[in-house]
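Protein data sheet
==================
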Amino acid sequence: MKKHTFLDLFKTRVLITRTLNIMYNWLVIVMVYYGLSLSTSDLGIDPYIAFMLSGLIEIPAYIISILAIDYFGRRIILSIVMITGGVACFLTIFFEPGIIRLIVAMIGKFGLTSAFGIVYIYSAELFPTPVRSAGMGLASMSGRLGSIVSPFALYMKQWWEPLPLVLFSSMSLSGGLLCLLLPETMGKKLPETMQEGKEIGLKEHEKTKEDYSAVERS
């Protein structure tokens, strides 16, 4: 039996573009998530209350997002929450510190928290079984790079006050648009071979779980 490594994810154009897309989205989500979490003291209210609200908003974000992806699909919901987070980051620039800025920032945190929960599930469903662990490792590594860069991105406000939010916004928007290029996995059989991993998302190869069950029974 051939032993597969993470290098197998970079042997075909389909898997290369898909892997890089996933890695970029992980980097963006983790970077912006921590950036928003670390900047709660700039919202214009008591920093302890702001931090508490930033944590509380994660509860409905995870619950709603996990329920939504089973009804509307992984790809579209991930795209919506990332774009929502990006727009909220950009709009935050135009509000003075206070309640309005807090509300807009919490909308952004809601979006990125939702994306954080979704991307774990979505990524695991996209990688074929032989390299799923390796793929998730690469994706998680990209996320860790995002968490490292995030605090330094916040220091960019020394050059121009809105610069960190502009960066977070543009990256979140680009990630939300790029994930639309990924195939939908809701209701699809997990890719068990490298070939199935390449074919997932192609119309002529898409089969629901019921389709595969019918084939197996016959």
In short: The radius of gyration is 19 Å.
